[in-house]
Each structure stands twice: as structure tokens, then as C-alpha cells.
Amino acid sequence: MSVSYRDDAPLGADDPTPAPDRPAASAARVPLRVIEPDGSARGGIIVLHESREFADELLRLMASLSSEGWIVVAPNLFHRGDVAEGEGVFGPDLFDDFDASFDWLVERGVFPDCTGVLGFDSAGTAAFQVATDRPIGAAVSVAAPGIIEPITVRAVALIEAAPRLRAPWLGLYSTDDPATPADQVEQLRDAAAAAAVATLVVSYPGLRHRPDRPGFDDDDDADVDTLIDAQTRIFDWFDAHLR
């Protein structure tokens, strides 16, 4: 049984003074969606997401992770109010929000090497960047774009950053996703292999590798098998590396 609630975490003291169009209270604290296990936690997972709303599928995934013993924390990356949905949050803002979530977990007894990060789409790219710059235990990116060219001026191309990965990283992709062409995914696989940590890139046919999105055809055995495999890999990656 999991417990779901909302909280917030203070940004670091070095956070710049809010711009005039940013509400001061919003800029000073990061709103969090939290799902905790009922009992002792074995670690924490920070979920980065690119929407202001939580799809039911994403909430179910977060609850499932929590049922495995993880404190799941999802910061609102759009709390500053000046980022268009779908553009993602990168640069200092991303790391400020991540660090606030990270510190929130540390205050609850979670060790850095027992903290993971999970992201989807552009937030998967954000999770990848976090894994190159922060001392965490593991990272998972699902359908992360920006492989060859950065998706924003504040991001870095994944193949450029891949050799600098500091945390074990799992990337889940589709061979049919135009945002992440299969040949680029292959280049990313090769680049990630140069990292000093464990990496794994998995490509699936179709688009059913997204446990954060509604099912396409629950009667299609291939769809169901793909979804189960993708979700199992996410769980197993955190199980293996968050110790």
C-alpha cells in the first residue's frame, strides 16, 4: 500500500532572484508529487516529466515503483511559469529543481547512491543530463530525443554527453519513433558504451514501450509483451543499481 501526497522543497541558496514575471513563492520552492511506500523505504526515484498534469498511466507506474519500496518524487518542472509545455526544462533550472528533490530525499534518509532518476521524452533527455552531472545511483530515459542535435540551446546532444555518464544508464527507444531515428539510437548505443559505468540501450518495434502512456491495443499480445518487458527493465535496472 502506498501513500500519495503533495509537498514542496526549497531551492538552493544560490538560486538567482526571481524575474519580475515569476511569482517569488513559486520560484523559491519546487512543488512535489510524492508517493511513498507504506513502511521502510529502500531508496528514492525522482521522476522528471514534461507535462503539468500526471496521466493515470504515469501515476500507476509511480505507485508500482513505490510498492517496490521506493519513495517516488516528481518535481513540477514548470513552476517558474515561463516554460512552454513540451519545451522541457534544461540548464541551471533543471539542476536546481533536481537538487531540491534530491535534498528532500536525503533529509528523509535516502543515500545518494540509492537515488535514481527516470524521465520520458524531453524529460528523458533531462534525466540523461542529470546522470552526467550528479552523483546518483542509476538513471532511465524513455524515448529521449536530442541524440545528434541538442533539443534546446540549454541541452547537450546525447552522443556528445554519453561518454561522461556518471550513473548506470538505461535507454528505452522505439525503432518506429521519428523523433529518435533508429540509426541515431545505434550511434547513441556506441557512444554510451564508452562511459565508465554500465549502460544499456534497448529498441522496441512499435510504440508500446511507454508505460507512462495509454495502451494502444490491450488485446494485441505483442503490445502487451512489449509493455511488460519495458516496465520490467525499468524496475530491474533500479533494483540492480540502487544499493
UniProtKB/TrEMBL annotation:
Q: From the Swiss-Prot or TrEMBL record, give the protein name.
A: Dienelactone hydrolase family protein
Could you cite one Gene Ontology molecular function of this protein? hydrolase activity
Q: Kindly give the InterPro entries that the UniProt entry links to this protein.
A: AB_hydrolase_fold, Dienelactn_hydro, Dienelactone_hydrolase-like
A Pfam short name: DLH
Q: Where is this region: Disordered?
A: 1-28
Dienelactone hydrolase domain residues are 34-241
Which UniProt keyword terms apply here? Hydrolase
